[in-house]
Amino acid sequence: MKRQKRDKLSRAHSKGYQAGITGRSKENCPFHTSNTRSEWLGGWREAIGDRNIGLISR
Questions:
Q1: At what angle do helices 2-21 and 34-52 cross, to 10 degrees?
Q2: Considering the entire predicted model, what is its pTM?
Q3: Dist. CA 6–CA 35, nearest whole Å
Q4: Cα–Cα distance measured from residue 17 to residue 45, given in angstroms and rounded to the nearest whole number
Q5: pLDDT tens for residues 1-55?
Q6: In a 10 Å sphere around its CB, with 0-12 CB exposed, 13-18 middle and 19+ buried, how is residue 38 labelled?
Q7: Does residue 18 contact residue 47 with C-beta atoms inside 8 Å?
Q8: Dihedral sign, CA of 18, 22, 26, 29?
Q9: How far apart are CA 44 and CA 22, in angstroms?
Protein backbone atom coordinates (compact mmCIF):
# COMPACT_ATOMS: atom_id res chain seq x y z
CA MET A 1 0.00 0.00 0.00
CA LYS A 2 2.80 2.43 0.83
CA ARG A 3 4.37 1.94 -2.60
CA GLN A 4 1.14 2.81 -4.35
CA LYS A 5 0.82 6.02 -2.32
CA ARG A 6 4.37 7.09 -3.15
CA ASP A 7 3.76 6.35 -6.84
CA LYS A 8 0.63 8.49 -6.79
CA LEU A 9 2.53 11.38 -5.22
CA SER A 10 5.40 10.93 -7.64
CA ARG A 11 2.98 11.06 -10.57
CA ALA A 12 1.37 14.20 -9.17
CA HIS A 13 4.82 15.84 -8.93
CA SER A 14 5.60 14.89 -12.54
CA LYS A 15 2.26 16.18 -13.79
CA GLY A 16 2.83 19.46 -11.95
CA TYR A 17 6.29 19.76 -13.46
CA GLN A 18 4.88 19.18 -16.94
CA ALA A 19 2.23 21.83 -16.33
CA GLY A 20 4.89 24.29 -15.18
CA ILE A 21 7.19 23.83 -18.16
CA THR A 22 4.29 24.29 -20.56
CA GLY A 23 3.36 27.54 -18.83
CA ARG A 24 0.08 26.49 -17.28
CA SER A 25 -1.17 28.36 -14.24
CA LYS A 26 -0.92 26.76 -10.81
CA GLU A 27 -4.67 27.39 -10.58
CA ASN A 28 -5.04 24.47 -13.02
CA CYS A 29 -4.00 21.95 -10.35
CA PRO A 30 -6.39 19.00 -10.77
CA PHE A 31 -5.87 17.62 -7.26
CA HIS A 32 -7.85 18.50 -4.16
CA THR A 33 -6.36 16.38 -1.38
CA SER A 34 -3.59 18.21 0.45
CA ASN A 35 -0.73 15.71 -0.04
CA THR A 36 -1.33 15.21 -3.73
CA ARG A 37 -1.99 18.91 -4.34
CA SER A 38 1.19 19.77 -2.46
CA GLU A 39 3.24 17.39 -4.64
CA TRP A 40 1.71 18.80 -7.84
CA LEU A 41 2.44 22.36 -6.75
CA GLY A 42 5.98 21.36 -5.78
CA GLY A 43 6.56 20.02 -9.29
CA TRP A 44 5.00 23.12 -10.79
CA ARG A 45 7.24 25.43 -8.73
CA GLU A 46 10.32 23.40 -9.65
CA ALA A 47 9.48 23.73 -13.36
CA ILE A 48 8.87 27.48 -13.07
CA GLY A 49 12.24 27.82 -11.36
CA ASP A 50 13.94 25.77 -14.07
CA ARG A 51 12.34 27.94 -16.76
CA ASN A 52 13.39 31.13 -14.99
CA ILE A 53 17.05 30.13 -14.82
CA GLY A 54 17.04 28.97 -18.43
CA LEU A 55 17.20 25.21 -18.02
CA ILE A 56 14.13 24.86 -20.22
CA SER A 57 13.59 26.88 -23.36
CA ARG A 58 10.21 28.54 -23.66
A1: 40
A2: 0.84
A3: 10
A4: 7
A5: 566 677 999 999 999 999 999 999 999 999 999 999 999 999 999 999 999 888 8
A6: middle
A7: yes
A8: negative
A9: 10
